């Protein structure tokens, strides 16, 4: 039997343990990054929607952490990919870990949910598809979820990085 697994554990707890391990590896990696960059921040870990979720938060001025977010979250996206690679290097498994810094993704998620709900409302009232601006995979997922919650369907069209969401009538 390998370390960290038990034969009596249900399959769901194995997944949770794996995701918690991903979070721990990511936290260690990000703590090292914060040390190198001489930035203050605390690491919060959670498991959300079958993926590890790691956040860097700070009591001090979040201006320092904004450097790690970058313009339109570009630096955040890159750091998330690097963190996923660090997890992959340790575990050998591909990670779907989500990284948030200074609440950027949480705020963006709320804005995108509202955008998806407004687009769904427009489609319901006019009966015509609505095409949205190009978005990242994270942004499209949030919009798709909001459209689904509004009782409509949506599709992604186009090629990266110009891939966008189309909200369709029921």
TrEMBL record:
SMART domains: R3H. Residues 106-170 form the R3H domain. Pfam families: R3H. InterPro entries: Jag_KH (IPR038008), KH_dom-like_a/b (IPR015946), KhpB (IPR039247), R3H_dom (IPR001374), R3H_dom_sf (IPR036867), R3H_KhpB (IPR034079). GO terms for molecular function: RNA binding. This is KH domain-containing protein. It comes from Streptomyces antnestii.
